[in-house]
């Protein structure tokens, strides 16, 4: 664990910003669409505040390390990783895709084909 030393005012501002982001993520998780995702088994019914706080910290850490040159990744990789984390925290622990990717569901012919049906 790493604790960053800072004076009280910036520390309070950082914590307030983190709380607002966590509240936003939690509010989205509590929205009507989230209820539908829970009903479909795509999301876990739980309090997302601890997960949202952990997510914010991981995004901050990744962004810091990437901009400092400590993480060898493309911008796309830096963006994709938090998306994977976010989806992982939303889904139930036992979640598995119903089937393998079916290109027809997305209006495509065959797996990996970029042509539209």
Automatic annotation (TrEMBL):
<dbReference type="InterPro" id="IPR036271">
    <property type="entry name" value="Tet_transcr_reg_TetR-rel_C_sf"/>
</dbReference>
<protein>
    <recommendedName>
        <fullName>MftR C-terminal domain-containing protein</fullName>
    </recommendedName>
</protein>
């Amino acid at each position: 664990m790493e604790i960053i030393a800072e004076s009280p005012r910036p520390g309070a501002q950082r914590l307030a910003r983190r709380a607002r982001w966590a509240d936003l993520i939690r509010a989205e998780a509590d929205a009507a669409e989230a209820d539908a995702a829970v009903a479909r088994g795509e999301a876990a019914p739980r309090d997302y505040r601890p997960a949202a706080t952990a997510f914010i910290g991981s995004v901050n850490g990744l962004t810091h390390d990437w901009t400092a040159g400590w993480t060898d990744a493309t911008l796309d990789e830096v963006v994709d990783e938090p998306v994977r984390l976010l989806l992982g925290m939303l889904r139930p622990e036992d979640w598995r895709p119903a089937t393998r990717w079916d290109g027809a569901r997305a209006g495509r012919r065959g797996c990996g084909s970029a042509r539209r049906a």
